[in-house]
Amino acid sequence: MRRIAGFMALLAALALVCAAAPCARAGQEEKKEDLRLEPVVVNAEKRSEEVQDVPASITVLEEGDLRDMGIKNTDDLARHVPGLEFNDFGSRRHGLMFLRGIKNLPTTEPSTGYYVDGVNYSKPYMFNFPLFDVERVEVLKGPQGALYGRNTVGGVINVLTRQPGNEVVFSAGTTLGNFGQKEVRGNWSGPLVEDRLFLGIYGMAAARDGFMENDVDTGGKDGRYQDGKAARMKLRYLANPDWELGLILDAQQHDDGAYSGRRTSRNSLVKAGAVGTDSRYHYSHDFDGSQENECWGATLNSVYETGLGSFHSITGYRDYDSDEDIDADFSPLDVMRKQYVQRDQDFSQEFRLNSSEGDGPLEWLVGTSFFNLHSRTEVTNRMGADHAAPGMKVAFDTDRHNMGASAFGQGTYTFWERFDLTLGLRYEYEHADVDAEQLNTPAGGPASVAASHDGAMHFGALLPKVSLAWHLDDDHMLYGTISRAHRSGGFNDASAPSGKEAYAEEYSWLYEVGLKSMFMDGRLMFNLSGFYTSIDDEQLPLFKTGTMQSYIDNAGKSYRTGIEIESRYRLTEELGLDANFSWIEARFEEYEDPAVGADYAGNRVFLVPNYTYGLGLDYRHALNGDWNLVGRADITGVGSRYFDDGNTVEENPYDLVDLRFGVEGEHLACTLWVKNVFDKEYTVFENTTAGIAEDGAPRTFGMSLDYSF
User: Fold this and answer.
1) CATH C-level class of 2-708
2) Pairing of strands 213-214, 282-283
3) Is pTM, for the whole model, over 0.85?
4) Closest to 549 in 3D by CA, of 595, 608, 483
5) pLDDT in tens, 357-397
6) Which long-range contacts (CB under 8 A, 24 or more apart) does 235-240 make?
7) What pairs with residue 161 in β-bridges?
8) End-to-end alpha-carbon separation of the chain, Å?
9) Cα–Cα distance between 394 and 243 in angstroms, integer?
């Protein structure tokens, strides 16, 4: 509580400074203009508008922010966005994301939409996307069903990459750090035909040794190592003054150390006395896991200006392959090894017509979308010499197919010059089917079908939105929003209990009020929002106690209520301050787990911290010529969390400090950086059922060198 009180006191002091700030003298007008925060334009509601005019809670980080904050991936991003939590437990494929306390688990449909250049990345295991060549990231908080549709119960993350143009841009860089960190990167963009055809190419490769040490000598790499590469090519074609086309091809490949989790006192083998617990940053497995994935995609964007408005077409295809091998007993014993193979192919199409800008008091858009997703998983458990049935193999083969279509529209009408009324509505239809089976193969014997199911189901959802904004003046806006979203239903694999082969949709309602404001002649931005989100038929992971296989069921009803604060302040020409704070109360109203006979109603939702905060100070000082001295200090904090539904295993609050310092010239930049300066030890997640924990990264440091012209 003292952390919260201290942070709130800082924000209160900042507000007092704003209220008490004297009017500037006439001779200072030019200087005041230099200190204004630059307006930020976003496409959050599928049209270009200044973020301070959008009646919604949105965090925006532009290219300079991403560079100065050292944001390279989704984990880094989460530390600078209030209400966003992300940790890749076990491997890149097992990312756990919470937005406003609403979870994305790798085994379920996502609750947060993740879009890159307008194309949806449809599954949570695709979310740990390397943020390279990015122009802007927009994080929309709360249900976004009317404009974005399915699987946006928590919100939407929009990533927009840089567009090539007439200016020739070239850059190359490298990063070296501890734990053997190495990265090389480069890009080129410019015109192939001036004013008509443009090309952009970006590539990177990165590797790092693991920070988890295996106490069993297996001859493998340290746990949580990383080795990957990614590339993107963009073609932009201006066919005529009214028609623009863009083609994007991208690919990435990663090889990561997987599931180097350490055993805790809750591990079944530890409780049986067969093995002991592991110390922090250590594990003891007889087999070193690995996770390899390859994904690529293509995007075709088209914008055509008509007399009625701009017509947008966004076509996307994503292909994702993952192969994972892990020590499934997490011990030096040879009990069980698991292989997890994932294959996804996803096609999506959106057509949208936006009204012309400045055509009157009404702005509108209408559209339709379609998607076709095929996903296949093959999970194989192989029993080792220390198992009761050595040589036995249990395999789960699950083939899922989802396809759907939607129609949507939204309009904003301005009346009495200061009020904006927004109404939105979307209807979605989805068809899903599955073919799943479990094959048991005893040692030396033939395979037999132990369980199977196939089936199909249909979903339909009506997703409304209403919002009212009151512009008190050009710098201050009050707003209120009500909106609905849903998460798609789906099918479990063949290990699910009888009657639990499928699970239904999950629905949420958002009620939000907020203030967006600018003070001190545009030097200080201060945004405040309060929200309440209710979730019905919540999809929750349950376990069969006999086999410890997980399945999904509509077992809960819960709510999230909270406050978010974001602020930016340009203190001087050389100093900038940004701050954010999020407080969330997330509790179950209904939740019974039949597997253990427990009722969790009234408990806090697992893994949701009661608060997060961030405070950053940015410094830039002019030296001789074109050289600048640059630096940034960040402190981020995470409140207490529970790792279990029963609220018996609690992780204490922790704070992390990051520093960056260097020099920048017109063509060359050199930066020294440190993350987790004080080498804080903390646990990001524990699977309390399995008794396996994941430690947060220790102190890392290094140097980055970049050249551009």
Assistant:
1) mainly beta
2) parallel
3) yes
4) 595
5) 877 899 999 999 999 999 999 999 999 999 999 999 999 99
6) 235/197, 235/198, 235/199, 236/163, 236/164, 236/165, 236/197, 236/198, 236/199, 236/200, 237/196, 237/197, 237/198, 238/195, 238/196, 238/197
7) 134
8) 49
9) 55
